[in-house]
């Protein structure tokens, strides 16, 4: 519950005063530390040793978790059910992929000093204009945020200005990601067609195939998740966050009070798209490939399932959901690949029926029961 | 007044410290002026040559049978519906027909809807905070801090609407009557010059109605208040001047006794306005 003491602080540092954020950051950093120690200090062959493959897998989960936080920001707090956030994730991933392609230099199969392999294969003689600049890390990293942000800005501007919300918005976000998938499948687009971008070697001079780089990427993703979480938390605990909740529950009323609802929606949507882009950029070097399948509508729907499963409008629920579902996916697709989609469907049905507020709702419920037994001192506000 | 003069005037707060009053020009009398307003939806005239003037600080009740155009009239004033013809002025300076909804709201026209819509997931306190007259652009909203000045102001309004004890409860748990008061409180946070109140006592208990009557009559004078209401008993208890709408135009205007004895009004209300209140 909001108290006056917390809201008098500077907005960006406000989350640090919250118990939930402190717990979240504590658990996250403990997990990062634990994995690092178990990977480096415990000898190979020991049952507690975490191998490089698993570290890499966890890094992937963390980038998914950041993506889920981005979706929860717009869905949980603003009520915008985006079924196209995979598009922002993939665009951020492609921006990173283009940088990594340019880093290959003349070590590709065809040995061309500038052109990536697939362009040589297509008999292109020069780099398309939009590939320029991606040899510079700062430019590529800026594009990781700016490209999805710009797409969200244009798309959101048109959608929110026309007051497209609810199920219609969900459908057009789905159409957006589907259209982009079809476009990126085409060789003429210059993004490697259906093969996408792959065969990466180095990131900022670090060999992507070394275990140390993988551990570094895992930690970097964890830190990015922490920062993204704090940013989202700062937004939702600010007055702007309350305007978002107000918009979610009664849009017309919020407009009547004098808020330009469409601008708030646009702002939060763009922030969310940029976070999704960042998640994509951290994902790509860890899996070693980016191709148009990341744009597939199914993937975007899956992200929403993670958030629903973890619990909407909590942010940490999104993290829990993303990690749980993807961990289950890894296990299931290993044991019986064909059953995964059924398992996902069953999981979703069970959670909707038994835990309508997701795993986070269950945690909140348990916490409240504990508090009823031992009421904390500051309970009466 | 120059800055120096304003600093020397000891009898008043410095001008630059005072919260900016709404820039409405009421020197020429009325705060709201509607002339020959017509709205037609596919040929059906919801409002037909409506003329209405509200004075500054007045409490006016608007009554009329269903479909008389009361809600459409409110929609026009708040910018939700555009009239086909006519002019609507707020004070003598602002043409409301050239403004959009947020602009009109920030100019000092607050509207309470028929059905109470408060932000149920937010606390009573937060509801009032959001409604407060403030810089409502994105970044000022993001970086806004709670100052003691603001919380004092919210406390004042909580006191006025009698919800102090429930300040940190989510608005969703409030009773129907309490939600209506919270809505009025949200309007007050905007420091409006003109309050439009649509059916404030619908569904209220007798005690809640009395409380609402007190609240609204207490507000008049400081603000202009326009109340649209079906409940004749309630209108009689608060009204000084009543306007009767019928088929989109003004049928009668005057004190409650004058209009209730007007044969045209009696005819529209089938001879008995008291029955209508039941």
UniProtKB/TrEMBL annotation, chain A:
Topology in membrane: Multi-pass membrane protein
Main location per the UniProt record: membrane
Record keywords, A-Z: Cell membrane, Membrane, Transmembrane, Transmembrane helix
Compartments, record wording: Cell inner membrane
Organism placement in taxonomy: Bacteria, Pseudomonadati, Pseudomonadota, Gammaproteobacteria, Oceanospirillales
GO molecular function: branched-chain amino acid transmembrane transporter activity
Gene name linked to the record: urtC
Database matches in Pfam families: BPD_transp_2
GO cellular component, one term: plasma membrane
Transmembrane segments: 20-41, 84-101, 137-160, 167-185, 212-232, 264-283, 303-327, 339-359
Protein name: Amino acid/amide ABC transporter membrane protein 2, HAAT family
Species assigned in the record: Vreelandella aquamarina
From TrEMBL, chain B:
ABC transporter domain ranges (all copies): 32-272
Pfam families named among the record's database cross-references: ABC_tran, BCA_ABC_TP_C
InterPro entries: ABC_AA/LPS_Transport (IPR051120), ABC_transporter-like_ATP-bd (IPR003439), ABC_transptr_urea_ATP-bd_UrtD (IPR017781), BCA_ABC_TP_C (IPR032823), P-loop_NTPase (IPR027417)
Transmembrane spans: none
Organism domain of life: Bacteria
Keywords: ATP-binding, Nucleotide-binding, Transport
GO molecular function, one term: ATP hydrolysis activity
Protein's UniProt keywords contain Protease: no
Ranges in coiled-coil conformation: none
CDD domains to which the protein is assigned, alphabetical: ABC_Mj1267_LivG_branched
Gene Ontology cellular component terms for the protein in this record: plasma membrane
Entry-linked Gene3D superfamilies: P-loop containing nucleotide triphosphate hydrolases
PANTHER family the record matches: CONSERVED COMPONENT OF ABC TRANSPORTER FOR NATURAL AMINO ACIDS-RELATED (PTHR45772), HIGH-AFFINITY BRANCHED-CHAIN AMINO ACID TRANSPORT ATP-BINDING PROTEIN (PTHR45772:SF8)
Identification of the protein by name: Urea transport system ATP-binding protein
């Amino acid at each position: 519950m909001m108290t006056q003491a917390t809201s008098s602080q500077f907005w960006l540092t406000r989350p640090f005063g919250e118990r939930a954020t402190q717990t979240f950051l504590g658990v996250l950093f403990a997990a990062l530390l634990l994995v690092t120690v178990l990977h480096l200090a415990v000898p190979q062959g020991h049952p507690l040793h975490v191998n490089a493959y698993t570290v890499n897998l966890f890094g992937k989960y963390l980038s998914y978790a950041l993506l889920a936080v981005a979706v929860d920001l717009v869905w949980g707090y603003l009520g915008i059910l985006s079924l196209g956030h995979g598009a922002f994730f993939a665009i951020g991933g492609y921006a990173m992929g283009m940088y990594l392609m340019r880093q290959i230099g003349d070590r590709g199969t065809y040995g061309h000093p500038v052109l990536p392999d697939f362009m040589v294969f297509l008999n292109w003689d020069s780099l398309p204009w939009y590939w320029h600049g991606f040899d510079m890390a700062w430019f590529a990293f800026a594009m990781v945020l700016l490209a999805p942000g710009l797409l969200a800005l244009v798309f959101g501007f048109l959608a929110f200005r026309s007051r497209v919300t609810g199920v219609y918005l969900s459908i057009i976000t789905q159409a957006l990601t589907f259209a982009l998938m079809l476009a990126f499948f085409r060789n003429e687009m210059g993004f490697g067609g259906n093969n996408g971008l792959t065969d990466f070697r180095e990131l900022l001079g670090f060999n992507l195939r070394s275990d140390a780089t993988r551990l570094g990427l895992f930690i970097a993703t964890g830190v990015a998740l922490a920062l993204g979480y704090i940013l989202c938390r700062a937004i939702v605990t600010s007055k702007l966050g309350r305007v978002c909740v107000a918009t979610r529950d009664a849009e017309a009323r919020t407009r009547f009070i004098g808020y330009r609802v469409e601008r708030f929606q646009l702002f939060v949507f763009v922030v969310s798209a940029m976070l999704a882009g960042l998640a994509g950029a951290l994902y790509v070097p860890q899996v070693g490939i980016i191709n148009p399948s990341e744009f597939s509508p199914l993937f975007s729907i899956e992200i929403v399932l993670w958030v629903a499963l973890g619990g909407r409008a909590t942010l940490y629920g999104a993290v829990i959901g993303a990690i749980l579902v993807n961990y289950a996916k890894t296990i299931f697709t290993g044991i019986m690949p064909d059953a995964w989609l059924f398992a996902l469907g069953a999981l979703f049905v069970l959670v909707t029926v038994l835990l309508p507020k997701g795993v986070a709702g269950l945690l909140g419920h348990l916490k409240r029961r504990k508090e009823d037994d031992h009421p904390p001192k500051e309970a009466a506000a | 007044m120059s800055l120096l003069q304003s600093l020397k005037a000891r009898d008043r707060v410095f001008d630059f410290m005072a919260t900016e009053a709404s820039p409405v020009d009421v020197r020429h009398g009325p705060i709201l002026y509607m002339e020959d307003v017509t709205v037609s939806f596919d040929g059906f005239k919801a409002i037909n040559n409506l003329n209405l003037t509200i004075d500054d600080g007045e409490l006016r009740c608007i009554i009329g049978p269903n479909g008389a155009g009361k809600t459409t009239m409110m929609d026009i004033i708040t910018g939700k519906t555009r009239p086909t013809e006519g002019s609507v002025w707020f004070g003598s300076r602002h043409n409301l027909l050239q403004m959009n909804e947020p602009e009109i709201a920030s100019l000092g026209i607050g509207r309470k809807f028929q059905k109470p819509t408060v932000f149920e997931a937010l606390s009573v306190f937060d509801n009032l905070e959001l409604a407060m007259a403030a810089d409502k652009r994105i970044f000022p909203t993001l970086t806004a801090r709670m100052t003691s000045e603001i919380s004092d102001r919210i406390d004042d309004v909580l006191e006025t609407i009698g919800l102090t004890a429930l300040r940190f409860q989510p608005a969703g748990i409030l009773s129907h009557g309490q939600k209506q008061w919270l809505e009025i409180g949200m309007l007050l946070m905007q420091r409006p010059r003109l309050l439009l109140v649509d059916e404030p006592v619908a569904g209220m208990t007798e005690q809640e109605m009395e409380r609402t009557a007190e609240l609204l009559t207490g507000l008049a004078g400081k603000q202009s208040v326009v109340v649209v209401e079906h409940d004749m008993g309630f209108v009689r208890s608060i009204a000084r001047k009543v306007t009767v709408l019928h088929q989109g135009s003004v049928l009668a205007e005057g004190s409650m006794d004058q209009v209730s004895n007007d044969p045209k009004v009696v005819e529209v209300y089938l001879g008995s306005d008291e029955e209508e209140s039941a």
